[in-house]
Structures are given as C-alpha cells and as structure tokens.
Design brief:
Length: about 220
C-alpha cells in the first residue's frame, strides 16, 4: 500500500493538565488524507506525562473521584465505521509534534497523554487515506453522534465511549483547548484529516475531530 500523503500542520495553543502544567500538543501531521478534526490538526511543543489515578484539578475545580490505574490500549473498534484496528503507540516527532501512525490502515494512541479510561482526553489518531486508497479513519467525518467506540486494553479489559460531536475545522484554527484541555472524567478524541486536498503542500486543509464521553 502506498504511503500516506503527508502532512497538515495546524498550530495549537497552550493547554494545561492538572495544576498548571502547561503543554503544547499537536495532532497535526496525520497523513495527507487522514487528519482529524472538530476537524483540525495542531502542532505544539512539549507533551504532558500520562494522567495518573487520583483527584484531578482542572480549571479551579477539584474532583475527589478516583479512577483505577488502567492498562495500555491495544485495539480500537468502531462498529458504525467497521473499524477494528490494532493501536500503535505514538510519541513525539523530532519537532515536538505528535507522531502519526506509520501505516494508513492502523490507528495510533498518543502514549504521553491519558490512557483511555483515565481522567482526561485520550487521543487516537488515524489516516484518512493514502495515494492508493482509504485509511483507517476514512469514514470518521460521517460518523453520527451516538456511535460507540470500544478500546481494548493489554489486560483484556475494555472501555466504551459514545461519540457526542464530530467537527471539521481548518488546521490553522485547530481547537487545541477543546481537544487537549483536562477533563474530570475519561474522554476520547479521534482525529484525522479532512476537507479539500492541497496538492501543492501534499496535505488536507482541515482536520476532523470526533469527541466522545464514557458510554
């Protein structure tokens, strides 16, 4: 299969995890055909460590709820899209942006953020297409609110989320705060590329982002 058509590069704003830990994250670079959106791609600097179990502080509000430690995610399933994919572990690229999956048919989980089921926004990226065909998140822009997303974990447990909103936004206006800001409960973001294709740059102009809460 031909490689993904790289790359979108929306730049994101700073976000805070926990007590004032300021970080810049990037969901940009998802293949030229596979960038996510409220549909946007974002770039940024240093990334945060995984969120740990225990009380979480966000925006001045403190939660006394605790969440157990959870195993790493290994697979994502979205029945409405017929997606059933192993998950690559994604870190940071040399420029500080989030790395993207190495194969268009496989999704990836951003391992420096929360694990699915921990409080905070877990992020899963997938390509929309490549030069030779559709990518794993080719249908993300058409998914309907209410669709279920199940993430299987290394200890054979699983967690299910329900999509609440799908948006497409220009990469230059990537909603960094909405995507990466801390949440008191476990949430999930699915990101790929979308919109029109810029042949000169070899990337899509927009990102598609699906927001999901625990089902």
């Amino acid at each position: 299969m031909g490689g993904p058509r790289f790359f979108g590069t929306g730049r994101g704003a700073l976000t805070a995890y926990g007590k004032g830990l300021v970080v810049a994250l990037a969901a940009a670079g998802l293949l030229a055909g596979a960038q996510p959106a409220r549909t946007t791609g974002a770039r940024g600097g240093p990334v945060p460590p995984p969120v740990v179990a225990g009380p979480l502080v966000a925006g001045g509000f403190r939660s006394e709820r605790t969440f157990p430690e959870v195993a790493e995610p290994v697979r994502v399933r979205i029945p409405q899209l017929r997606v059933d994919s192993a998950l690559q572990r994604l870190g940071q690229a040399a420029d500080g942006t989030i790395a993207v999956p190495s194969r268009v048919e496989v999704a990836g989980w951003y391992r420096l953020g929360p694990r699915p089921g921990q409080p905070g926004p877990a992020v899963i990226l997938g390509h929309v297409d490549s030069r030779t065909g559709p990518g794993i998140f080719a249908g993300l822009s058409g998914v309907r609110p209410g669709a279920l997303v199940t993430v299987d974990r290394a200890d054979r447990s699983s967690v299910t989320f329900r999509i609440t909103e799908v948006v497409r936004v220009p990469k230059v206006d990537f909603p960094t705060e909405a995507v990466y800001a801390p949440t008191l409960d476990p949430t999930l973001r699915l990101i790929t590329c979308g919109g029109s294709f810029d042949a000169a740059r070899g990337s899509y102009r927009d990102n598609v982002i699906a927001f999901a809460d625990l089902a």
